[in-house]
Design a protein that fits this description.
There is one protein chain. By secondary structure, this protein is α/β, with parallel strands linked by helices. It has 2 domains: about 130 residues, Response regulator (Rossmann fold); about 200 residues, Methylesterase CheB, C-terminal domain (Rossmann fold). It is about 35% helix and about 20% strand. The strands form 3 sheets. The protein has a 7-stranded parallel sheet, with helices on both faces. It has a 5-stranded parallel sheet with strand order 2-1-3-4-5, with helices on both faces. Helix 4 links the parallel strand 4 and strand 5. Helix 4 crosses helix 7, helix 6 runs parallel beside helix 11 and helix 8 packs parallel to helix 9. The longest helix has 16 residues. It is elongated and about 60 Å long.
């Protein structure tokens, strides 16, 4: 038991074994207290009337009322930080991405523990809950909601990737890193960008398989082409590549092109992909032609890498405190004086739009 206030957590899952496992894992940290376990949203609502939790862990697929419906009710009536517990299914991946749009902050993928990595799995769950507890949450009615356009040719024919015409030595490349709250921040930025925006690389802390669903969802809303990165992809204007959720993403020069490559290896700052790894490769191989942007998130992943980009003469930007869901990662970068600019999401989007005009 510590002197500081504990984080009160409510666990909602229809599986008794899953509820017990989550409780057991979370109680490894003395800063976390379990105030209740519910089999379904109705039980959860009854427990919340007795005591409002600081964080809810919420299963997506449950009988009586599914997790998405319950999440909508929470966010419209009494916003509380929510960590989604999701199974690896196609339907589950799509619904999990939707849950982030509805206000959920983090994703934990079942099963939690891989063979021989029990402690790593426990720490991941603790980190996600602690990160969510520090976040600013808003009611759904207060959030700026994106209204999807009416159907166009996109419904039957994918956008063509803009052909790269910029010489290598003059090519700008934008690298973005984000964690808690980053999915909505990234969408807010990318959906405003013109088709001639310089090539973009994105590391968003998210489990493997969900990154593809996230990229596909973004592609529905954006003028630029958004896809999950594949090893060997050429970085091109008008294209955003989302890092895969189980490997580090790097940038390399090959001939007249910049190419992305995957790197295996340990978790860096407890993450794979790591923002620091991407930013270091930008500093090493792109230098002054790079733009590094560090968005909302807990911890310090990306802070040192952003400083390395600044030292390589790149433009470096961090999201401001007011628009950040969690100001941890940007704050750590500011402590290192790694940033050239501190901007809101709207200002970051405007800067990137201006950048595309300058490069044409």
């Amino acid at each position: 038991m510590t002197d500081k206030r504990q984080i009160n957590v409510l666990i909602v899952d229809d599986s008794a074994s899953m509820r017990n496992m989550l409780e057991n894992f979370l109680l490894h940290d003395p800063d976390i207290n379990i105030i209740g376990k519910a089999e379904n949203p109705y039980e959860a609502a009854a427990l919340m009337k007795k005591q409002v939790p600081d964080v809810i862990t919420l299963d997506i697929e449950m009988p009586k009322m599914d997790g998405l419906t319950f999440l909508k009710k929470i966010m419209s009536q009494h916003p509380i930080p929510v960590v989604i517990i999701s199974s690896l299914t196609k339907k589950g991946a799509i619904e999990t991405i939707k849950s982030l749009e509805y206000g959920a902050l983090e994703i934990i993928l079942k099963p939690f523990v891989q063979k021989g990595k029990r402690q790593e799995g426990i720490q991941l769950i603790i980190d996600k809950v602690k990160s969510a507890s520090q976040a600013k949450v808003q009611s759904k009615s207060q959030k700026k909601l994106y209204i999807p356009p009416k159907y166009s040719a996109d419904a039957v024919l994918k956008k063509k990737i803009l052909v790269q015409t910029t010489p290598l030595l003059n090519q700008k490349i934008i690298a973005i890193g984000a964690s808690t709250g980053g999915t909505n921040a990234i969408q807010e930025i990318l959906q405003e960008l013109p088709i001639d925006t310089p090539g973009i690389l994105v590391v968003q802390h998210m489990p493997v398989h969900f990154t593809k669903a996230f990229a596909n969802r973004l592609n529905q809303f954006c003028n630029i082409y958004v896809k999950e990165a594949e090893d060997g992809d050429i970085i091109q204007n008008g294209v955003a590549l989302i890092a895969r959720g189980d490997t580090h993403l790097t940038v390399n020069k090959e001939g007249l092109n910049y190419i992305v490559h995957f790197l295996d290896g340990p978790l860096v700052n407890r993450h794979k992909p790591s923002v620091d790894v991407l930013f270091r490769s930008m500093a090493n191989n792109v230098g002054s032609q790079g733009i590094g942007i560090l968005l909302t998130g807990m911890g310090d992943d990306g802070a040192r890498g952003l400083l390395e980009m600044k030292e390589a003469k790149a433009i470096t930007i961090v999201q401001d405190k007011e628009s950040s869901t969690v100001f941890g990662m940007p704050r750590e970068a500011i402590k290192l004086n790694a940033q050239k600019f501190v901007l809101s999401l709207t200002e970051i989007s405007k800067y990137m739009t201006h950048l595309s005009h300058k490069t044409n």
